[in-house]
Design brief:
The protein is built from 9 helices and 11 strands. With about 325 residues, it is of the alpha/beta class. A hairpin with a 3-residue loop joins strand 4 and strand 5. The protein starts with a strand and ends in an 8-residue tail after the last helix.
Length: about 325
């Protein structure tokens, strides 16, 4: 409820104050007519006060009506324009290295990616996996429950071993080829060097740039050597140290050519921080549109006030108002 002309109450208060002030002035006398005898009033009874109350109530309602009370609804519409994002994840055997405690690189990468997806509720997200070749695990969709379910299914052995970074990036970019979003992003995660596939990473980067796709690259792996599990038929699971060899130069160039950034994650905490940083860099566009619609109650109150005035006036024409 709001009042379009609240000053009307001040005007009413001024009238009441003036009337009370005049009544209290010395010598104030209510207007009247003198009679030589009041005997003719015998038997007529005391005039009722309710006609006056009608007039007072009407005056109050008229004042409220002049203040124009308005009741309405305020609606706020949030418009958000999401980002189209494809996650490209390396499934090569080297991702089994357990330098990302409490699990191997792939398990941790999937957990961090899942948390990232859960915070991007207005974005379409897809998943591409690659090893010796690349394939689409999930197309772009707003159904994040489906994306997360398919992400969890990623595992070693789904494709021949190898590291086809160029193929992984080209497949991810292809998923964005029909996108109409103003912001298209690929987040590519790998722990190695491109050694398979028919597409070079820099060629895939040029394709991404031509289509307006920004690429963030992440190299995962500690410095030096990482523990790699080996299942021995006689002694069970054993660990051997394997060298960590990431083609940071190429990954940096891919990101630079597409307007993205290269990140290096040496442990699980660093990887989570990187995804959080990308989350801040790639925010959905938001805009608020507010609507107000008000219904003016003044005319209705005016009508009621005039009904009360009419009722008071009609009551004043009764037998108590007539002089014989």
């Amino acid at each position: 409820m709001r009042w379009a002309f609240p000053w009307a109450f001040l005007a009413f208060a001024g009238l009441v104050f003036t009337w009370l002030w005049r009544r209290r002035r010395p010598g104030f006398k209510a207007p009247g007519i003198g009679f030589s005898s009041t005997g003719w009033l015998a038997g007529r009874g005391t005039p009722p006060r309710w006609p006056g109350w009608f007039l007072i109530a009407g005056l109050v309602l008229l004042t409220v009506a002049l203040a124009r009370p308005q009741q309405g609804v305020r609606e706020r519409e949030m418009r958000e324009r999401g980002v189209d994002i494809v996650l490209a994840i390396d499934l090569s055997t080297s991702m089994q290295a357990e330098d990302f405690q409490p699990a191997n690189r792939l398990v941790v990468a999937k957990q961090v990616a899942e948390d990232f997806i859960s915070h991007r509720r207005h974005d379409r997200i897809g998943v591409v996996a690659f090893a010796a070749n690349a394939f689409t695990q999930s197309p772009l969709t707003l159904n994040h429950d489906v994306v997360i379910g398919l992400l969890r299914q990623l595992d070693f052995g789904m494709v021949e071993d190898g590291t086809a970074i160029g193929m992984g990036l080209a497949t991810a970019v292809n998923r964005l080829r029909q996108s109409r979003s103003q912001s298209k992003v690929v987040i590519l995660l790998t722990d190695g060097i491109n050694n398979r596939g028919s597409v070079d990473p820099l060629t895939a980067a040029e394709l991404a740039r031509a289509l307006g796709v920004r690429v963030y690259t992440i190299g995962v792996g500690t410095t030096g050597f990482a523990p790699f599990p080996v299942d021995d038929p006689q002694f069970g699971r054993q660990y051997q140290n394997i060298p960590v060899d990431i083609d940071e130069k190429t990954l940096t160039e891919v990101a630079r050519r597409t307007g993205g950034r290269y990140f290096r994650a040496k442990d699980a905490r660093a990887l989570a921080s990187i995804y959080a940083e990308i989350d801040r860099l790639e925010r959905s566009e938001e805009s608020d549109v507010e609507y107000e619609e008000y219904d003016d109650k003044g005319p209705l109150l005016c009508a009621i006030a005039f009904v009360l005035f009419a009722a008071g006036w009609a009551a004043g024409l009764g037998r108590y108002a007539r002089i014989p």
